[in-house]
Design goal:
By secondary structure, this protein is an alpha/beta fold. It has three helices and six strands, in the order H-E-E-H-E-E-E-H-E. The longest helix has 9 residues. The mean pLDDT is 87.
Length: 151
């Protein structure tokens, strides 16, 4: 017989009877009801919310404001490429995000690619990137190259 919604049954051993505490010694869990003798754990009205046994609680350990790793969506994080890395391209080539990814200069594009001025550039290139540092832009244009801000 196929199992349908009409003839479903609970698997044997899946449902256990709830263990009632503090109902006398005859129940097997009377008197202190599994909470031991005295102390903070024995009194249900004294437990403090967020108390971690004297350790600095998590709500005090974590910063309350400012940009941190969980707020990366607020801060624009660029993939960084330096001028010296652009020398792998041929003279007169157009360098954009896809070309940079194909050459393996960056692993992920993130919010875009930013060109920084570390090292020296020896080739005339047309570079399309999300952002440029002032010195990098200056160095590219000095060699006769073009800097285009791509969206």
């Amino acid at each position: 017989m196929a199992t349908t919604l009409a003839n479903l049954t609970v698997a044997e051993g899946a449902k256990n009877k709830r263990f009632i505490k503090g109902r006398g010694r005859g129940t097997g869990n009377g008197k202190t009801a599994g909470k031991g003798q005295k102390g903070q754990g024995a009194h249900n009205h004294t437990k403090k919310g967020g108390f971690e046994g004297g350790q600095m609680p998590i709500y005090r350990r974590l910063p309350k404001f400012g940009v941190r790793k969980t707020h990366r969506h607020i801060k624009t994080v660029y993939a960084i490429v330096n001028l010296e890395q652009l020398n792998v391209f041929e003279d007169g080539a157009t360098v954009d995000a896809t070309a940079i990814l194909e050459k393996g200069l960056v692993k992920k594009e993130l919010a875009g690619i930013k060109i920084l001025a570390r090292g020296t550039l020896s080739k005339k290139l047309t570079v399309k990137a999300a952002a440029f540092s002032e010195k990098a832009k200056e160095a590219i244009e000095k060699l006769g190259g073009v800097c285009e801000v791509a969206e």
